[in-house]
Write a structure and sequence with these properties.
The complex is a heterodimer of chains A (about 130) and B (about 290). Chain A has helices at about 10-20, 40, 55-70; strands at about 50, 85-90, 90-100, 100-115, 115-120, 125-129. With about 130 residues, chain A is of the alpha+beta class. Chain B is elongated, with a radius of gyration of 22 Å. Classes of the chains: A alpha+beta (about 130), B alpha+beta (about 290).
């Protein structure tokens, strides 16, 4: 699971994520850049992992809570809040974060295991106006 | 002498009439902005308007402009944006152009960068830029603006980013927008995550380091010499269009590319110019 684009700031994300259930970081780099974290992930530090019941509602709640925690800790959270959280699949959500002149669309995907879910590094694309 | 050059985004004026041994030439960029009020539909007093004016944007509560509020907002926008950009830069005249004689001495002025922002209703007159403006309801604290759609709170100082210690970085959005109207791009274009060929609105383009985030073309209010680029370009164009001066024409080897300064540099004598001296303090008798 090695990705090629770790940004320095994501290292602090990983450090914190290893302590807290839901990680913190700023968002990933430009459009469709894999959010970093991969090198550390390969070393065994998860982005964020949470114990979770296996029924769909519990999983959704877990995933959305982890997303909200991630957004709350984002150093670049300034802007127009959250305008959309939408399931893109059973294990991923697209979150829309309006900013001046643009909407940041961030995709969070999760690995679901029996009794737990793990958040992967999110990716972003930008819709400019 | 007053020279004028028209650009799509502004007009530039180079004025040597006040030049002296201690006074530089004025290099003024004059920008005319035409504003259009956006009001609730159907003549209602209140309504909604979507972020970015887009059908996919989040609706925000808006209020009908009154004539008094509209005029006050335009005046506030123009005076504060003008004050922010005016008189912040000087052009180091390393070309030796526009020399003047004071008594027996020859002086070479630098350029004092002035900014004049003239705002009026878009419905009449010539404008370099036309901007729509919504008046947000008191309950709203954010609206999705873009380069031609502003909101009434864009002149407020609000957090636009957070530094590495989690402290908010504040900005008045309108001074950033005027930076764009002067031709400036975001602070980190060309850096990692923000390729010149990509979408220069991508998040990393606003800066990923604290230093970049605090730039006016990031999320902050700090000016740097790069932000004087519009004046520098105009100055270079004026110099290129000038015939050779009968007062002083430096040898090509003495000429260097003009530069933007963020501190006053007084006019130079020929000797000072040829030595490459920057005169930042007025000498006795000058
Ligand atoms: Zn911008």
């Amino acid at each position: 699971m090695l990705h090629a684009t770790p940004l320095g700031r994501w290292r602090s994300f990983l450090t914190i994520a290893a302590i807290a259930v839901a990680g913190c970081s700023d968002r990933s780099a430009a459009e469709n850049l894999q959010a970093p974290a991969a090198a550390e992930t390969a070393k065994g530090a998860p982005m964020a992992e949470q114990k979770c019941e296996n029924d769909p509602t519990s999983r959704s709640l877990c995933m959305i809570r982890m997303i909200l925690d991630h957004v709350a800790q984002d150093p670049d959270r300034a802007g127009g809040g959250i305008s959309e959280i939408k399931a893109a699949s059973s294990t991923s959500y697209e979150v829309a974060l309006p900013k001046e002149g643009r909407i940041v669309h961030r995709t969070y995907s999760f690995e679901v295991k029996e009794g737990s879910i793990r958040m992967n590094a999110p990716t972003e694309r930008v819709e400019s106006f | 002498m007053v020279l004028r050059k028209r650009y799509p985004r502004y007009d530039a004026f180079l004025d040597t009439r006040n030049c002296s041994s201690r006074t530089n030439l004025d290099l003024t960029l004059e920008m005319r902005m035409g504003f259009r009020p956006i009001n609730p539909a159907g003549g209602a007093n209140t309504g909604t308007y979507n972020d970015y004016g887009s059908s996919s944007g989040t609706p925000r509560q808006i209020v009908k402009w009154t004539a008094a509020e509209w005029n006050a907002w335009k005046a506030s926008f123009c005076s504060s944006a003008q004050a922010y950009w005016d008189a912040k830069f000087w052009i180091d005249n390393r070309q030796g152009a526009f020399a003047l004689k004071v008594g027996k001495d020859v002086f070479i002025p630098n350029g004092y960068c002035r900014f004049k922002l003239i705002g009026s209703d878009a419905s009449a007159g010539f404008h370099h830029h036309i901007i729509d403006v919504v008046r947000l309801a008191p309950s709203e604290n954010w609206f999705g603006s873009h380069s031609t759609l502003y909101d009434s709170k864009d002149t407020n100082l609000v957090p636009k980013a957070y530094d590495s210690k989690g402290k908010p970085i504040l900005q008045r959005a309108h001074v950033h927008e005027v930076g764009h109207l002067l031709g400036l791009g975001h602070v980190a274009i060309g850096q990692r995550g923000c390729p010149v060929t990509g979408d220069t609105n991508a998040s990393p383009c606003y800066g990923t380091s604290d230093q970049d985030k605090k730039s006016v073309m990031g999320g902050g209010m700090r000016l740097d010499t790069i932000h004087g680029t519009a004046w520098l370009g105009a100055f270079n164009d004026f110099v290129a269009a000038q015939p050779q001066s009968p007062i002083y024409a430096p040898a090509p080897a003495k000429k260097r590319a003009p530069q933007v300064l963020m501190r006053r540099a007084y006019p130079r004598t020929v000797a000072e110019f040829e030595a490459g001296t920057l005169v930042t303090k007025l000498l006795p008798g000058r």
